[in-house]
Amino acid sequence: MISSSVKFLLNDKLIVIKNPDPNQTLLNYIRTELKKTGTKEGCSEGGCGACTIVLGELVDNKIEYKAINSCISFVPSLNGKQLIIVEDLVSQNGKLHPVQDAMVKFHGSQCGFCTPGFVMSLFSMFKNNKSLNNELITDSISGNLCRCTGYRPIIDAAKSLNKINKNDQFSKNKNKVIQQLKKIKPKNVYIKKDDKLYFSPKNIKDLKGIIKKHSNFSFLAGGTDLSLKVTKERKEIPFIIDLKEINELDFIKVSKNYLEVGSATPLIKFEKEIKKYYPDFYSVLKRYGSVQIRNVGTIGGNIATASPIGDSLPILLSLNAEVLIESFNKRKVLPLNHFFLDYRKTKLKKNEFIHSIKIPLFKKNIFKAFKISKRFDDDISSVCGSFNFEINNNKIKEVYIAYGGMAAVPKRAKACEKILKNKPLTINTFDQAKNYLEKDLSPIGDMRASKEYRLEIAKNLLMKCFVEINSNKLSRVN
Amino acid sequence: MSKENYIEEIRPHDSAYKHVSGYAEYTDDINEPKNTIYGAIGLSKKAHAIIKNIDLTEVKKSEGVISVVTQRDIPGRNDVGPVFEGDPIFPEKKVEFFGQPLFAVAATTTELARKAVLKAKVTYKDLKPIITIKEALNKKQFLFKPRKVKKGNPSKKIKNSKNNLKGNFTTGSQEHFYLEGQAAFVIPKEDDNFLVYSSTQHPSETQQLIAKMFNQKSNSINVEVRRIGGGFGGKETNFMTACICALLAKKSGQPVKLRLDRDDDIILTGKRHEFLSEYEVGFNDEGIIEGLKINLSSNCGMSPDLSAAINERALLHIDNAYYIPDIEVINNLCKTNIPTSTAFRGFGGNQGMMAIENIIDNISRYLKKDPIEVRKKNFYQKDKRNVTHYGMTIEDNVINEIFKNLENKSNYKKRYSNIKKFNEKNRFKKKGIAITPLKFGISFTTIHLNQAGALVHIYTDGSVHLNHGGIEMGQGTHTKIAQIVANSLGLPYSLVHISSTNTAKVPNTSASAASSTTDLNGAAALNAVAKIKLNLEKFIKKKYKIYNQEAIYKDQYLIFGNRQFEFKSIIQEAYLNRISLSSSGFYSTPKINFDKKKFRGRPFYYFCYGAAVSEVTVDTLTGENILERVDILHDAGKPINPALELGQIEGGFVQGQGWLTIEELKWKSDGQITTFSPSTYKIPAVSDIPKKFNVEIFKEGINKEKVVNKAKTTGEPPLMLAMSVFYAIKDAVASIGNYQFAPELNAPATPERILMSINKIKNKIKN
Hints:
Low-confidence stretches of chain B: none
Largest sheet of chain A: 5 strands, mixed
Low-confidence stretches of chain A: none
Radius of gyration of chain A: 23 Å
Largest sheet of chain B: 8 strands, mixed
Strand content of chain A: 15-25%
CATH architecture of the largest domain in chain A: Roll
Oligomer: heterodimer
Strand order of the largest sheet of chain B: 3-5-1-12-9-10-11-20
Distance between the termini of chain B: 68 Å
Mean pLDDT of chain B: 97
Shape of chain B: globular
Structural class of chain A: alpha+beta
Structural class of chain B: alpha+beta
Number of strands of chain A: 21
Largest interface: A-B, 81 and 85 residues
Number of helices of chain B: 19
CATH architecture of the largest domain in chain B: 2-Layer Sandwich
Shape of chain A: globular
């Protein structure tokens, strides 16, 4: 079954868009076609949160409320979902939703321009969670910038929601919406609008069918990077294949010795699972980007984009991860370490896609990862360092070290590893090894950090590993 | 207002309901007539170059394009400079910064307009750009002749002082990052009139500049602003967007909306002035300053804009809260090829204050004293040491009280010694603490700007409609003015309605700036109310034969002794008796005067005071840091609405924290900015704020002058409370050298700069 229309619920009203422009952003659609102006444009790159909206998605017969940046999502991504915008939170009698009411009571708005975005982020947090602790609150609004309030009143508003009855108008309307969502359950979508193509297959078989026939397409696997081509470069993406609706690519399989993660698995889902095995991986992922970004960004997207500052990449490298690559007729496995060729260039060929990534579980190893950036929340790394040590009898048996932000690609530090291997766990070993990072890495200076700072941090992070391993305590300020 | 009639009433912002529900309307949200078209601006790709040719053939052919404008389409003044010339809307011959507007288009959609402008073919003849203060100083590129301000004989004092120090220090630029970018919407009307909606802090100047650009009279331009999504000074001038939008509307004859993309907004609009201070100071063994010589140079960008006033305010705040007996300041206003630096909360005052705080901090480190002691020793006093370097006697000084109070409240002494102990025990994590004062002068230093108007109508049903010249930009000025007007009329707040600021209702207004919006416009509104009251009372007294009784307005009644009149009915009665129930109001600040040439007088009506204690932990391996705790005590006089003032204090603090820590703007040597989006320019996010944040309004505060409600403004001053964060970081860094060396650290103290500062101390220890 193929449809050329996008069907979604605007709150609980069915809307069918026939043959939409696949390059039109959700924000643009909401403001110019739905004529609802509560959702604001702040930056057009998913960096400020003013455009935050919530998508209700049917997962196991329940609705999950995902906050996303509407400025970097395209209209077809609405297909089969419930779109909730800030105006929808007000009841028909004009009564504010508890989240909105709390923002008023605690003076959470000043100029008010960022406020709808905050309201939507808090709304999704309120709907998805039973209790709201400080960590959850901070995480939920880490992708919303406010220039007026200094955030304290917004945090207080969020905390006050713990005392509020969860049974809001959306709970009351839930069954009806679930029925409606079932009815519009997404099909394969194929859109041909002017000279632009968009294909959103539901399964791998159909995906293979299309990549067999075509070549000049861009995979959309979250689109937090790809969409900027439209919003910032003001160019078109002529042919999009959206991988996000393929359920077979959205999975996490745990076996005894490794974790296998489907390439279209959203980061927010992955981080919850990886936390059990590698807490530092989780900590870095939480700072990978805001909730809005992690709700749509995928592990496969991060790998295929191959940015030197993709935060999951050095970590996966140091964990010796493998990539499962498929084309329409072949399947192969590549060590991630061999996958990156040059700046944003990988071994992935035109008609291949990433199926999944296999992450070994080093149960006896000491694993550490650090992200250094100017700002704690939602910033791009100056340096991301990841360290995986097997230590036996105070001796380093095996070691994998990788860095992001230190070369054109995320990179293993092999010279340094070599020096550390089979050496005693002493400060001298590390002191000696850190200088070999100069051989391994070739950072550049840019607006985020100088070359010198990057190199020094890379060395210091290695020393930090020693300090932490030696003292068996974390030594971090954050 | 009678003396006792203060209010202190917490209520939400008047637009809070609309903010949270999405119904608060900003310029880009205004419903459009059907034939509305959308603009985009074509930007220069060079920072300094002669324009050889601009070929717009492909732009004009681009899909959806309806109208294209260049400098040739401007019939009148091609300049948006508010005080001085120098800001061409579209330059004729020479571009002077990367991103300077060259032309603009209007198309059927914003997206098509933005695509179209990229198709221009511009050829240039390159000139060498000057980007930094140092380059400008070397090449003597100044906007005005360097200026010298002097009191006493500092050279002699420094020479005779027991101790002296020399050094230099910079504070960085800052992007406003108002969440609502620059936006305008212009609708052509009959008779070449234009209705202009603009996201501006200054509707009157917008009106005048559009009129001048069109060679028309101001009475043909009507500017309206309901609210703006943040300003912070970034919309005090920056009239480019509204003027270009109006030009497109005039040429096309259609309504035009123009909203800058965030990148373009950051690329082409001016920012905070970067300042360099080079100083020489003499002081005694207690740290008391005896003489100070300082070169204060600022990066003003390509044109004067407001730089003269901003630098003047820096000179007026080089003392912060300290008495400096002998002082000489030489001020250089550097001309460079970056967008013209402009107003930003603090307006130079904060840069001046950071310069002196750095000196005080370095004196303390030199004398191995706790900086709190040196600060206290240098404070202005009440009866002596109370005259500023510009000859103004400080009559309302409360800094000593606030400091003492906060020192105790925050447990400063104990924490100071605990931190030293912590630092002895910890090798990689170091803590630091600092307390800093602030004294900030309130009034426009350009005296004539200290005026405001208002318009008040009382309708026959007893409801009140109010307009004033101030812009609602989040600070809650409409809420507070409605509160005092309601109070003055004895009416519930709900009966007073403030609508959009409009140049047709209140003319010749000053910008909503200098922290004085509510002081000035609130007083003007009360003046209008007073005039209506006078009419009303005259009528009642005459009709009901009431003599020598003062009227009291309370609970919707007008009371003369034992006679009571229900407000609504008496209004109706007054109307039937043909009594005017409408009035304009006016206010001009008394007492102030300032001779700019002699640099003497009383430029400020009053001062705001406050202090903050910050405690940080620094990771000495990475430079990362965390703001553990902040205690603030701030003087807001008798606040009209303490909740809104608290919002200004906390918000201002965090904005200042951003300025001094993570907000870093960078330009390449060719003048291209590299930090022009939220992915490269980082303003504080939720995790940056203090883990413990104790903010209090100084309870004993009262404005000694006749300001509305005896309140003190909280607009700009709280930004400077964040100085404590910077000096706490510096304190943590100093611990690396066991407090024997003053860290070399410039603002912003980014993790990178902190690590480099640590390294410098480590190297000093080695040597």
